[in-house]
Structure formats: structure tokens, C-alpha cells
Predict the structure.
Amino acid sequence: MYAILDIETTGGKFNEEGITEIAIYKFDGHTVVDQFITLVNPEKDIQPFVVQLTGINNKMLRNAPKFHEVAKRILEITENCIVVAHNSSFDYRILKTEYKRLGYQFKRDTLCTVELSRQLIPDKPSYSLGKLCKSLGIPMNDRHRASGDALATIQLFKLLLDKDVDKTIIESSIKHFDTKKVAEKLTDLLKDAPSIMGIYYLHKEDGQIIFMGKANNIKNSLTNQFIKTTKRGLKIQEKTTSVSYEPTGNFLLTDLKYHLELDINKPKFNLKSKKKMNFSAFNSDNMLLIDKGRTIDEHSVIVVENNEVKGYCFTNLAFQENKMSILKEILTPILNKELAKTIVKNYLKTKSVLKIIRF
């Protein structure tokens, strides 16, 4: 679980800033499940350049709650969450400083979307939130206000989760306030599992993927996995300490992601099998295969160019699908193009997608 947040401050000397606005969205990796947004009375004046940047002035904050009045709610919504922010070291430092003033030690694991973007979306001229979102076709409203910036960070983080194909970069980028990991019981792991179509990953204590599965209903499939009494099944249950999952929204993307990531990750407990490769050409050299996405307002897009499967992405705005330059920016590239071609061709032999756009 993640707590994606953005904080606006008064500006001023290091560690003397006060919070003027905070927005926190509790995010399960796919949807927002809780949120908290409020102005905060910092009990000090805002620097003039900050007023000009954010539009928040001293008069607006006169009747806003003070930090100690919202501190409990912030603790509740971020409990057992990884705090995610664009330049998380700043937001985390500000929160720790505010809690320290109250005599409390604020401790949360953190993830920085600036650092992740540099690794997963390299060679960008700027990694500021505004310029990065613009280059990726992510819409932004209320720039330099806590809620607007946090919502944009959610969309950016979704894209980063998709691009982390081998599931190691994000896991290794988490900054733990406490490096000790506590093994979770299988019943606890099942508690938050969703009843949706997708891929799931079983991790051992160091985060390494030891087993991958695909399912029409992830919760049901995990339940079956955790009640197996075979030697292999019991070993998987013993080694598993955490579960992650990725919704896919449709059968083609489920099959494609599963086999491609199986080829990359090579989990220890997955049974090895070889697919018979299909090298024949597509009916069209250049096309977009558009199908259902993970949510009602989203599509999945698979890009075939020059008779190769280049990659896939998710879109929730029509102009993203109609502009190839933006599609290529948000695309998760595919390395094993022969395997991808085999999976897509075999699927299209007997099944269909929502729409095919040839270009």
C-alpha cells in the first residue's frame, strides 16, 4: 500500500518551514482507496515568492487547522504505507520536522518518483513534475497545489509501476526506516488480494520473485496456491513473505505480460515450458491493438510496428491513442519480440480485441 502525497510550505530557512497545504492519496497500486486534503495554518508568514507560486496566502490559512489538529489523521492514512512523492526527501523531511516539534518520531518507508523516473524513463531533459508530465501526456490541474501535484504523481507512479517489468527497480528503491522484514502469514497476504484479472508475484524476504501466476480472479488463484500440499506447493508457501499483483483488464495482455515477464524473471518455482514460436507475418505491419483496460475509463494498447510487437501501455485519454509520439513515450518496451509475436498471433487466430487501428 502506498501513500502518495504532496506538501506545500511557507518557504524560508531549512527545517524552519511550515506546512500550508497537504494532500494524501492512499493508493493500493491500482486505485485510490482513501484521501485526505487540507490547508494548514503554519502559524508563520508565507514567503512572498511562495504566495506567487502557489496562490496560497496568509489570509486563506487564518481559519485552517494547525498541524497538531491534523497530525492524527496523517498518521492513520499513512500507517503501513510506503510514502511516495516527487522528491520524497523534501516531503518526508518536512513531515518528520513537524512531528518532531510535537515530540513524536514519524517513521515511514519512502519512494521518490524523481529517482524512479531517472531509472525507468532515462534521458529526459527535465525531471520536474510539470515538465515530465507534459512530455508523457499526463494532464495536470492546479499546478503547485497539493492535490493537483499529488494526483499527477499518482498517474506518473502508475506508469513507473508498468515500466518496472522485472519488478526489481521499485522494490530496491524503497528507503526503509527499519530494514527488518517481518514474515507475513498467508492469511494476511490473502486479506488484501483483489478479485480481478491479472498477474501476481510471490516474493521471498529479499523481494525476489519466486513464483508468478496469471488468473481471471487473483484472490481465488492465490487461495488455491496457498492450500496446495505438494512438496513444491509447501515450499512456495514457506518462502513467500509478500505478494504483489498487476491488473491487466483483458485476456491478451494477461497472457502477453505473463509469458514475457516469466522469460525475464525466471522465478525459481515456476515450471519451465517452451512455446512453439510463430514467425509468420501479421496481416498488417503497423497497427494498434486496443482492448479493455484495468478500469472502465481506460484502454490497453499494444503497438505493432514494422511487423514487430514494440510494446504496450494503458491510456485513459483519446488523444494519447491518436498521437504516436506520446504513445511511444508511455510505452513499456518489449525485448523478446519473437515471443511477443507468437503470443499475439496465436491469440488473434481465435479471439478478437475491441479495436484495431492500422497506420
